[in-house]
């Protein structure tokens, strides 16, 4: 399975913060925002990743992440000229996807919870159909919403409905079989002029090929698209890291634990963060076998 990380858009909801820098490079406590969705792909065991962003911002991502080899992964880049919808990412990365199944994640989503990695690993074994994730929130009208019948069977998916049929929002994490490219080609732009990922999911639902995993109370899903949620996300990460002593979305640690880089390579990465707590943490991983 391959991974696509969509980090496009104008970030207008976070302006003026985003006037000179991509939203996905803003700090969430001690790491750039893009580290968090990238860590999800890596925890899933996905090593071939395509990052999609604007022509203006891509050089910044290349400077930050390079080709991924320092982390034992491979990163390619594609340009999204205009914010034409999430589903367009599947078309822009068609040659990258090739004959593989694919995981698509949005660059402003943060996931955290015990047992999340096994869920991700299971989803990567997908051969047919699609898997999406639902999360109960108090304001589902801001998102795509999935509704169920009394037997927990999915009956509808709606994009930002005025009157949601449930309180389960669809998170920005999607697993698809290889047929998703053809489905993305078949949909037409919505009234917003965008290729909606909801329409892709509806096609899978219509073909009885859509699975929904519900993330329960033990999970946190944070969308960092507003000033308030950006601040709350940083505070959440700070609280967890300080209390537990472990870092969330530490790419170097994930690579090391996956066996993608050696102890020597990890120490070299740690030395690039001299004189700060991030570098100290990486050294501690080696010294104490965290």
Q: Please identify which CATH superfamily we are dealing with.
A: Spore Coat Polysaccharide Biosynthesis Protein SpsA, Chain A
How large is the share of residues in beta strands? 15-25%
H/E series, N to C?
A: EEEHEHEHHEEHEEEEHHEEHHHH
Radius of gyration: 19 Å
Number of domains: 1
How far the N terminus sits from the C terminus, by CA atoms, comes to: 28 Å
Question: Uncertain spans, ≥5 residues at pLDDT below 50?
Answer: none
> What structural class is derived from the secondary structure elements?
alpha/beta
Structure overview:
The structure is a single chain. The protein starts with a strand and ends with a helix. The chain is of the alpha/beta class and 290 residues long. It is globular. It has a single domain (2-249), classed as Spore Coat Polysaccharide Biosynthesis Protein SpsA, Chain A (Alpha-Beta Complex), CATH 3.90.550. The chain has helices at residues 35-43, 58-65, 88-92, 94-97, 116-123, 180-186, 197-206, 227-244, 251-258, 263-271, 277-288, and strands at 2-6, 27-28, 31-32, 48-53, 74-79, 102-106, 109-113, 130-136, 144-148, 154-159, 168-176, 210-215, 219-223. α1 (35-43) packs parallel to α9 and α10 (263-271) runs antiparallel to α11.
